[in-house]
């Protein structure tokens, strides 16, 4: 009986470790929002603060992020507790990508058409990630613009239908015309945190809430 008991205990210990490892796998957190809300700036801020690396290039040109980019195993430590997440920086979701948007930035027509095609494919990819492959969402909005749009309402609805934890961030508070309360009024059912990802303002609170929401 002693041999069987020891064998049983060994198997139980190995099984416990396997399941513990699975439960500690990083959660895939998608960074979503409309184009030019500051998603990549935020993704880079988080990645640099906790890993020293960047996720992707930042630009004032719309749809600069045309494919989802992933930074794995970002460990955020708050109050002695470490939360491990994979950051998924997604393309800005919009109902229409017009190549003429790129012409306004001194691009040749062929390049503008290519970028618009890639951006359209990126929107489809972002929607797939949202419906199938993320465990939580950081939703980034430009606090200088009206948040009550068809796209934002649709995406928040999808997030809610999947019962995903979501943290809404009112970005660009360093700019004149920022109105965080307008975002809170648009989506009162969810917590909204203000920040400037570019300047790093209020990132401590952002990290606290990420740890609480997704840990």
Automatic annotation (TrEMBL):
Protein's UniProt name: Era-like GTP-binding protein
Gene3D superfamilies on file: P-loop containing nucleotide triphosphate hydrolases
Molecular function terms, GO-annotated: GTP binding
Protein's GO biological process: tRNA methylation; tRNA wobble uridine modification
Top-rank lineage group of the source organism: Archaea
Domain G: 28-172
Annotated GO CC locations: cytoplasm
UniProt cross-references to InterPro entries, sorted A to Z: GTP-bd, P-loop_NTPase, Small_GTP-bd
